């Protein structure tokens, strides 16, 4: 069944939950992508581009759950009672919200297939794959965390992140879905000011674990670094040596405001395909590949030692050059693992010719984005010329800040947007859908890039 159905305005006297929003950031991997899948360290930071999910509860006369994901053109409705609840409730299959789930249950994945089969059935294979990935991560989490008596709802998702560009779009939507569903079953406490840090950690951990399960539905073998940084925000050093245990996550306090250019080749690719390339390389040349992955680990650890060393100053030429060397070396590793792309090499060449910094791909590669660390003497005119060359090549540049907040909640979805509406401006589905492009989404509901919005709450 397709179509998003009616959306009802809510009043505070209504017994239904009010519309609310959750939001989670994308990320850049500064060092260690791919190697992190094999138990090596990675360093990643949240970025100011984010996904926003609006949850609208419908009246009791409705019994449907609808996904409205316009960024990819997905609009699908399931009837709640029709879904395969019994498979997910079976002895040995039932998961609790506090369980540590580290792999997908193949029987449950199979039980979902008939309900995914008619999602965007009319679309070409490539688009359908994108829809299926998003729909399956939602459905797996919905069936795991919710119940046949769940209220009818519309989940409307919009993101200011480019999709499939290495900036963690899939993780940010999984974090949003996980947080929304956990919020709806009322097992999240907060976020609120002065929440004890132990309680904050528990909420973040719950959201993160289920976001990881969502990521498992989208790409076969995620390390968990993307969902971890998206949930927690800020920046982390991440390492997962044993998939049956939680990863080692070291928060990087005072992550330096690196002078970075972030450029998207706009070459589409899929993370799972790029991860599979490295797996194939490892099978073909196990010793050499292992040595490359170990070398990446050393690069990441060297960067970590540097930025946490006493006296580290990103304005020091010596420190910057050290980090720049590590950018170049890490990019070389990724090239040798086969996950670069001629367009990523083109960005690197343009920056090298301008001689203003060091470049590496970020994320899974195969297209997507590159980051360039700028030298201190990079002058404005040269940067401008370079930006024009990016544009001529069809690339897109983003201005982002690093190390911002992780998952946030806006409950109810009311903001003080400087409008005349009494009690604040209610963000309903129409308004949210009408916002054109990333800038308008930011302006309408953004967590604070343009102005500090106190209504958004974070587990800090
Ligand atoms: N805004 C969105 N709306 C709907 N689905 C989305 C959205 N963003 C991401 N997705 C889902 O995530 C998939 C992209 O995941 P993929 O891992 O390939 O890219 P990424 O997360 O942007 O990159 P990386 O993992 O390298 O950081 C899409 O195919 C889609 O299923
Ligand atoms: C390529 C990879 O290392 C990063 C993708 O953002 C995959 C992962 O860690 O899951």
UniProtKB/TrEMBL annotation:
Domain GHMP kinase N-terminal: 155-230
Short name of any one Pfam family annotated for the protein: GHMP_kinases_C
Record field: catalytic activity: (R)-mevalonate + ATP = (R)-5-phosphomevalonate + ADP + H(+)
Domain GHMP kinase C-terminal: 318-385
Gene Ontology MF, one: mevalonate kinase activity
E.C. number: 2.7.1.36
Subcellular location field: Cytoplasm
UniProt keyword terms in alphabetical order: ATP-binding, Cytoplasm, Kinase, Lipid biosynthesis, Lipid metabolism, Magnesium, Metal-binding, Nucleotide-binding, Steroid biosynthesis, Steroid metabolism, Sterol biosynthesis, Sterol metabolism, Transferase
Class of this enzyme: transferase
Gene Ontology, cellular component aspect: cytosol
InterPro entries in the cross-refs: GHMP_kinase_C_dom (IPR013750), GHMP_kinase_C_sf (IPR036554), GHMP_kinase_N_dom (IPR006204), GHMP_knse_ATP-bd_CS (IPR006203), Mev_gal_kin (IPR006205), Ribosomal_Su5_D2-typ_SF (IPR020568), Ribsml_uS5_D2-typ_fold_subgr (IPR014721)
Presence of keyword Transferase: yes
Protein's UniProt keywords contain Lipid metabolism: yes
GO BP term, example: isopentenyl diphosphate biosynthetic process, mevalonate pathway
Pathway: Isoprenoid biosynthesis; isopentenyl diphosphate biosynthesis via mevalonate pathway; isopentenyl diphosphate from (R)-mevalonate: step 1/3
PANTHER family, per database record: MEVALONATE KINASE (PTHR43290)
Record family assignment: Belongs to the GHMP kinase family. Mevalonate kinase subfamily.
Function according to Swiss-Prot or TrEMBL: Mevalonate kinase; part of the second module of ergosterol biosynthesis pathway that includes the middle steps of the pathway. The second module is carried out in the vacuole and involves the formation of farnesyl diphosphate, which is also an important intermediate in the biosynthesis of ubiquinone, dolichol, heme and prenylated proteins.
Protein name: Mevalonate kinase
Biological source species: Endocarpon pusillum (strain Z07020 / HMAS-L-300199)
Phylogenetic lineage: Eukaryota, Fungi, Dikarya, Ascomycota, Pezizomycotina
